[in-house]
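Its record is set out here:
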Amino acid sequence: MSTGQDASFMQAALEQARLAQAAGEVPVGAVVVHQGRVIGRGFNRPVAAHDPSAHAEILAMREAAAALGNYRLDGCELFVTLEPCAMCSGAMLHARLARVAFGAADPKTGAAGSVLDLFAERRLNHRTQVQGGVLAAECARLLSDFFLRRRQESRMNNQPLRDDALRTPDERFAGLPDYPWAPNYVSDLPSLAGLRMHYLDEGPREAPFTWLCLHGNPSWSYLYRRMIPVFLAAGDRVVAPDLIGFGRSDKPKKDGFHGFAWHRRVLLEFVERLDLDRIVLVVQDWGGLLGLTLPMEAPARYRGLLVMNTLLATGDAPLSPGFVAWREMCAKNPEFGVGRLFARGNPHMTAQECAAYDAPFPDRGHRAALRAFPAMVPERPDSEGAEVSRRARTFWRNEWQGRSLMAIGVQDPVLGVPVMQALRQEIRGCPEPMRVEQGGHFVPEHGDAVARQAVGYFHA
């Protein structure tokens, strides 16, 4: 088999490894090939399946054997991203595989030459050809990034909690529907001063685009669960932080802690710390109020904008009646049910999905940001955030060099079509918006279709 074909099949194994990573398993993937066609796929699942034998290679061989109707895999080749262990090597020999190709060596448990070499054991009655080092660097990087995140997560879980903040218990986030991604945390940004900020970071670092997804109030990164898989399937990277006070991030106890300038500064530091580039900025609600002020500080980092139901609050124009009504509702009913809010505007969501939006806020003490953010929207020229928003408006009008795409949830009573059409006029080169006819304020809840159009648009 040629080197080019080996690389192609190892890429298929890497796709499986990324599925393991997304499920929180050690990212190892495997495929079985018969006559140039993949007939078996598998990724690590021992944790989820409560099965010590559920290694990627075993699962791929099971699927291949079922496809051939034979437990012997004569003439088949197996591609796996990590050197197989003794268990998997033994199964490969029993299956009579013709050839095994692996990516990264495993100096701790590898049984194809690193710790021992079962395939070279002459007393066994079958010989399987073995080749290591196929896309070794890419396979090894996926594993090293995974374990680096694990170490960082362990350190962050032990990060002391500030006396003036609360931290939502991890069990509140267990088993949320369609949210399988591993948490990442940062606490050493200068502005955080020890607060712990959560973010998702999925996909290859060298991806064509990094989709920076910024949520609003009262949502969190769960908002983008329908869009993230589409971006990842395109080979891109996705970074989705939880603003302080939301999601899995720490929650200051006092309403007065929150301010426009402080949250903006945290996001600027976050982008710098992760050294994000080739960014497509994805914004909705407060994700736009804050996020639309970021690119002017480092335009070279940004390639595109996907903007959904938000605004630039410059203080020199009245806020929409819908927003004023929303702010009054929040003031009168500060303990409103977040899940119920999503259920009213998104009848297609399940009860479990709606409940996931309540997960970060187990009691009143965790809800300071929900109370503070409606009043933080700049409504006068001298309001905090108004001046920087006016500077951002000038940037988007005259200096923006990237591509833009707008999606409008038509049913939104707060920041709907009139607000978004006015914003479109402020964004240089923004084409006619995509109308999400059944979408309300939280457009990403219809985000799979929006994400597919966005991928086609920005990758064109």
Remarks:
- The longest strand covers residues 37-43.
- The two ends are 33 Å apart (CA to CA).
